[in-house]
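Exercise 3.2. Students should predict the tertiary structure of the chain below and write it as structure tokens, then compare their answer with the key that follows.

Predict this chain's 3D structure.
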Amino acid sequence: MDEPIVAIATSVGVSALNIIKLSGIDCIKIINNIFKGKDLEKVDSNTINYGYIIDGDKKIDEVLVSIFRAPKTYTREDVVEINCHGGIVSTNKILDLILSKGVRLAEPGEFLKRAFLNGRVDLVEAEAIQDLILAKTDEARKLSMNQIEGTTSKLINKLRDNIMEVSANIEVNIDYPEYEDAV
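Answer key:
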């Protein structure tokens, strides 16, 4: 599951910038090997680093590379985000270069799946993120944000705890009726 994955995180088309996102083991090392600038393996987490993506001695694009170290990331894995120039040619060239280094193209929703499997989000929050992406009204956005913030999960967990307590009391009263007043 830790194998590195990559995806274009923005809509590809005519725009000033695109973002290419990676997550997984060795993703920082892999990008460091195609980055001309600071040594990404030595920079602090939550930093933005200026430089170039290179293929051998050829500069592919001028970029900003953001480094996020596990476990304080969305997927709880190391994460790299490359801000490159928009358009299809540069973005695809960088993506192809990353894929040639053994990184796998992420499946749709795989970053969210990793966040869920690594305990970063629960099922309700994961579904809410999907709902937020598909929201067509401000009310739908607000409901999704409440779920993402854990409002629904906290309520469900509180209800579950109450049900477990009542259930335990019932079982004790059934198993030990002579101690009816003790519980």
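Discussion points: The beta strands are 5-8, 17-23, 35-37, 47-55, 58-68, 79-85, 104-105. DSSP finds six helices and seven strands in the chain.
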